[in-house]
Design a protein that fits this description.
The chain is mostly helical and about 300 residues long. Helix content is about 75%, strand content about 5%. Among the domains are: about 110 residues; about 80 residues, no CATH class. The protein has 6 helices and 2 strands; from the N terminus they run αααββααα. A hairpin with a 2-residue loop joins β1 and β2.
């Protein structure tokens, strides 16, 4: 403000001298030495600028030699003031441009920061998804490995079992072949001995049969009549039973009965029941009678 006031005072003094020299009416002569307020100074400056423009337009047609040095000084002062104002406006414009440029750069930086943050979050999400997929893949791989190891173990066990069975089959085959070869060799050796043994057995059986037949004839078995006695079938309080008050006895001797029972125990029952025995044989009749009696009991 002090510099502006000095410039304004110098300009006012130069213009006043110029006007006094060329007899230009001066409306502000009595007020030059008085103190101006800021508002009055602004108004006076505006009026001075208007008069300066009028003066400049009036002296444009004058030759250069007629222009006083004071006027040139005043013009230089006006030009410097105008240039200072233009410089102030230019500085303000430059500051505005710089501020706008800084705002643009800050907006770009914020945009880049937001973009970088979004990229980082996206990368973090992708990394999290990759970690999840990797964990799932590892779990699946572990399960597949366990299944593969289990399958390989089962395969080894089955293979060993097959090899063991093949070995056993081969051993059995070799043993059977050896037995067959030994049997073929021994058949020719044992044919004579077996025939001799068979003939001896047949001869002994003939002798035993003759003695047995003679013993049965000498025993003189007699058949007793059939027993008419049968137990009575009764029912008492829902219980079915056979009532027998008498003691039934066998009509044969003890020794004969024991021999008959031994024969029954050592003979197939179907052969005894289904085979037709000769009626002339006392032993056959005896066995038939004994079977009938046992069926009655």
């Amino acid at each position: 403000m002090a510099e502006h006031e000095k410039v304004d005072a110098a300009l006012l003094a130069g213009v006043t001298g110029f006007l006094a020299k060329y007899n230009t009416p001066n409306h502000q002569q009595g007020k030059a030495s008085s103190a101006f307020s800021d508002d009055e100074l602004v108004i006076n400056i505006n009026q001075l600028l208007a008069e300066s423009e009028v003066l400049l337009s009036a002296i444009e047609n004058l030759p250069q030699e007629q222009i006083a040095p004071a006027v040139l000084f005043s013009l230089n002062v006006v030009t410097s003031v105008s240039s200072q104002r233009d410089t102030t406006k230019t500085d303000q414009l430059l500051s505005d441009q710089r501020r706008e440029h800084r705002n643009i750069q800050a907006a770009k930086r914020r945009q880049r920061y937001h973009k970088k943050t979004a990229n980082c979050s996206e990368k973090e999400k992708m990394r999290y998804a990759d970690n999840l997929s990797l964990s799932a893949w590892r779990a699946i791989a572990v399960l597949q490995k366990e299944k593969r190891l289990e399958t390989e173990q089962n395969h080894k066990q089955q293979r060993s079992a097959v090899v063991e069975r093949a070995r056993v089959i081969h051993q059995m085959k070799m043993l059977l072949q050896r037995f067959k070869a030994d049997e073929g060799k021994n058949e020719s050796r044992e044919d004579g001995d077996q025939r001799f043994l068979f003939k001896a057995l047949v001869g002994e059986l003939d002798a035993i049969y003759a003695r047995t037949h003679q013993t049965i004839r000498e025993a003189n078995f007699k058949m007793s009549p059939k027993l008419p006695y049968k137990p009575m079938r009764k029912v008492n309080q829902g219980v079915e039973y056979f009532d027998n008050t008498d003691a039934s006895g066998l009509p044969f001797d003890f020794n004969d009965t024991s021999r008959a029972m031994s024969l029954l125990m050592t003979t197939d029952p179907s052969m005894i029941r289904n085979k037709c025995l000769s009626q002339e044989t006392f032993l056959g009749e005896y066995i038939q009678e004994l079977l009938i009696h046992l069926s009655i009991l």
